[in-house]
Write a structure and sequence with these properties.
Length: 317
């Protein structure tokens, strides 16, 4: 299978009632556009476009790269559709709002409300020398879990929670983007497609023992995302941990920087055995929203470390 770069729809393109403004991002599975609706209000439109199976070399129609890929493409399309239908039933401030869903150009489109802000991943990158503060972590994840609870209530698992799929609006409120379950079903049943997990954020049972998937699987990814806020990188990948666990507990790594309470929560979510993790979002949220934790005072070593890292950063520029 080739991995060519597919062309996006051109700017100004009329897609039913929507006008494409520009592409926002292109991943291996889909493209996301900024567009306007019939009332010229902004929307985000996601186009199902698995780049390993289909081509768009010009115009709007996409064609399979090889006729043999057509059944796989159609199966993925069905998964994308199912996912969109399920999501369309969820209306929650911390979950991306799906407004419309339709077929065109031999593929399928999901229209979402457009949100201004940036991903948590971007936020982490911008603050490399000054990791996110405990108060911000608790606030962001505390609210995000309200959204995740709603998702689980609808019997949907997200299965791709990671900082790149957590979006922070300009007013600081978080929302969940990009539900990966469609992709999971899609790649799981098609051994020719490599699973699209993001190493480090997916729990071990997502690699195998998929019968064990449940709310605790998303909870593992939440723990890994909090870990990434502290470390600026993901923990060791779940499948590798099962073979040779090199995970260094957060409770050891950031002792004295974050409260013991928060570090214990991270280590709890990242337990390899799913039975040892929080079993429900509510259980985790109760711990995260406690207000009797103690954030350590920055010690001298910590202040010096911060001073030197900032100084190095200033010199690099
Ligand atoms: N509703 C939205 N509003 C604004 N930007 C969005 C929206 N949905 C997606 N994006 C942008 O597109 C990027 C990719 O979207 P995502 O749903 O994660 O797709 P994928 O990772 O499959 O390409 C996001 O990181 C974000 O920058
Ligand atoms: Mg994404």
């Amino acid at each position: 299978m080739g991995q060519q770069v597919n062309l996006p729809l051109p700017n100004g393109y009329q897609l039913q009632d929507y006008t494409i403004v520009k592409p926002l991002s292109s991943g291996g599975f889909s493209m996301v556009y900024l567009a306007t609706d019939a009332d010229t209000l902004p929307v985000a439109i996601k186009e199902y476009m698995p780049s390993s199976l289909v081509l768009r070399t010009g115009g709007d129609i996409i064609v399979p790269e090889n006729p043999d890929y057509l059944p796989t493409f159609r199966y993925g399309l069905k998964c994308f559709f199912e996912e969109g239908k399920a999501l369309a039933g969820i209306s929650h401030p911390n979950v991306v709002r799906v407004l419309n869903f339709f077929r065109a150009n031999e593929t399928v489109y999901m229209v979402m409300s457009y949100e201004q802000g940036r991903t948590l991943q971007k936020e982490i990158q911008l603050r490399q020398n000054e990791p996110l503060k405990e108060s911000m972590i608790r606030l962001v994840f505390g609210q995000l879990l309200n959204g995740l609870r709603e998702v689980h209530l609808h019997k949907i698992l997200h299965l791709d929670i990671k900082p790149a799929n957590i979006y922070i609006r300009q007013d600081g409120t978080p929302l969940l983007l990009d539900f990966g379950s469609a992709r999971q079903t899609f790649t799981q049943n098609n051994p020719r497609l490599s699973p699209m997990f993001t190493p480090g954020f997916a729990p071990p049972e997502q690699y195998r023992d998929r019968d064990n998937l449940g709310p605790w699987s998303d909870i593992y990814s939440v723990g890994a995302s909090i870990y990434a806020c502290m470390a600026a990188h993901a923990p060791q990948a779940g499948d590798l941990r099962m073979m040779d666990d090199k995970y260094m507990p957060a409770g050891k790594l950031w002792k004295g920087i974050y409260s013991q309470d928060l570090l214990d929560i991270v280590d709890w979510c990242l337990e390899l055995d799913f039975l040892n993790r929080p079993q429900s979002v509510l259980q985790l949220q109760k711990e995260l929203l406690r207000n009797d934790y103690k954030v350590p005072e920055p010690g001298l070593t910590q202040r010096l470390r911060k001073f030197f890292s900032q100084d190095m950063f200033a010199r690099k520029r």
